[in-house]
Amino acid sequence: MAEKFQNKYRIPSTRLQNWNYGWAGTHFITICTANREYFFGEINNGILQLSNVGVITNVLWYEIKNHTTNVELGTFIVMPNHVHGILVLNGNNNNTDTTVVETTHALSL
Q: How far apart are CA 62 and CA 35, in angstroms?
C-alpha cells in the first residue's frame, strides 16, 4: 500500500536515501508549475515576458543569500512554466541530520 502524506497518496521520495543534501556541494534545481501552466510568463516574439509571479520568482531567487548562510547562487533562469537554478552549498558539513532543512526567516510580500 502506498504511503499517505496529509491523508493523500503520493509517490515515494526520489531523494538518494544515504545522501545528506546539507553537505557542501553543487545542486541543480528544477521547479515546475502544476500541470505545466504558464504562471511565470509567456514567450512573445522569441522573448520571455515575465508575469508578476515570474518577476517575484526572479527576485526571490536572489534573496536566498539574505536568508541563509554558506550558500552561493549560480546560474538561474525563469521559464514560462518552470525555473532552473544552481545552488552551491559551502561549509554545511557539520550537519549530520539528513532530515533538517533550515531557513532563518521568510520575506513578507
A: 26
Torsional class of 91: left (φ above 0), alpha (ψ -120 to 50), beta (otherwise)? left
Q: 56 φ, ψ to 5°?
A: -65, -40
CA distance 8 to 2: 10
**CB-based burial of residue 64 (10 Å sphere; 0-12 exposed, 13-18 middle, 19+ buried)?**
middle
Render 57-90 in DSSP notation, one character per residue: HHHHHHHGGGTSSSEEEEEEEE-SSEEEEEEEE-
Amino acid at 47: I
**What is the value of pTM for the model shown?**
0.68
pLDDT tens digit sequence for 39-90: 999 999 999 999 999 999 999 999 999 988 889 999 999 999 999 999 999 8
State whether residue 101 is helix, strand or coil.
coil
